[in-house]
Amino acid sequence: MKCLRSGESFGGADEVFPSSGSLASATKDFSASEHSCLAEHIDKKQDTGNIEEAESSLRESGVLNYEEARALLGRYEYQKGNIVAALHVFEGIDIGVVTPKIKIALSRSRERRKRHSQNHAEPQMSIHSVGLLLESVFLKAKSLQILERFKEAAQSCKVILDIVESSLPEGLPDNFGAECKLQETLNKAVELLPDLWKLADCPREAILSYRRALLHQWNLDAETIAKIQKEFVVFLLYSGGEATPPNLRSQMDGSFVPRNNIEEAILILMILLRKVTLNRIEWDPSILDHLSFALSVSGDLTALANQLEELLPRTIHRSERYYALALCYYGAGKDLVALDFLRKLLSSRENQDHAPGLLLASKICCENCSLAEEGVTFAKRVLQNLDGRCDQLEDHANFFLGVSLSAQSKLAISDSEMFKRQSEALHALETAARTRNPLVLYHLSLEYAEQRKLDAALQYAKCCIKLEAGTNIKGWLLLARILSAQKQFLDAES
Q1: What is the torsion angle, in degrees rounded to the nearest 10, for the CA atoms of residue 480, residue 482, residue 487 and residue 492?
Q2: Last residue within a domain, chosen from 211, 226, 244
Q3: Chain segment 145-162, per-residue pLDDT in tens
Q4: What share of the chain is helix, strand, coil (3-state, %, to 5)?
């Protein structure tokens, strides 16, 4: 194939291209030299600023039809960065006119693959022409996106998916259109469409586009599918809107159908975790972050713990796994299971100063009187490791230490040991009380009351009620008990 030159015909063109002026035959594939010649030809015409003249000259060469000539010119303008000029060229292509031919070419191409026939009659439009025209539609969408005409861009991009899906309802075969970059164009269109709908502020269409990208067989690679799935999850979880449940026509009876955004996001994230487990995609920590958020919101922390336990070793660090599992089981109300994981975490030499783990362990222990001694140990380790570097964490540690010491004092064998524990408990709680946390003040008042220091107990009880605006019945009950102990029965009764 020689360089395309205006007014110059090809020798033996009828023999080489029996299907007349269609790019279906003329562009079995543009080699580097052919594309260079075409670019030189277009450059000469573009220097005059006359796109129509260049297009007319290409068509008069007898090789390209109207749509294909404009597709090549538009691509050239787009590659040069002349977005407005490229859009002007692309808008001259009536894709509706060539859509029937494109559909026939796509469907016949699949039929030939199924029969493995080499003698089948050439369709009216070659797969190369299909690739060229669909690429022009995609570049038109990109041009509109650059010009911030997002809704028009989305509508243009959607045309590509509509044509391919209606032509190949069963999905694309392997290596389909690889020689003409048709698959590459389709991949880009599938990824771009949801983003365009989001930019156009059309969340419903964006969600439908994500579902379409994931449910139809587009012959995408595993990493591309995973990328789309992660973007869809982010949109479902954080967009602020509620999507209509998907209509899964092909699903089997009894299979799970998500009822809302959270359930759909969890389903996709679990699919991603399964792919990681099977080594189909690379590990991405954001998968676990989003799943933790979704399952926490839904209240199913046991399910999150199960997913964590199913992860392959070395997917996440052992210390991170143990701490996350402890949080899950603690949130699910399984305190002792959580404490077991924390003991495993804190028993290793590299994690013995793990402050969040120590704090959670001391919190669990202070809520269980039988674990008071262990709670004291954990809380003291926190204070020792922090060494004044964080007042907030130290206040929490002092609170847990005070509650555990108070519980431990009740189990003391001798009076001296009991008084010592009570004194340490008061000191720890008073230190924590600088936060003005109502819970801390409640326990401080309770500790003073149990040690028969009623005036101080009354003061902190009133302060606790004031901070909570009288909404916590436990504070009122404690105040009534203190007033009764002071024989102020009328005040206690009121």
Answers
A1: -10
A2: 211
A3: 999 999 999 999 999 999
A4: 70, 0, 30
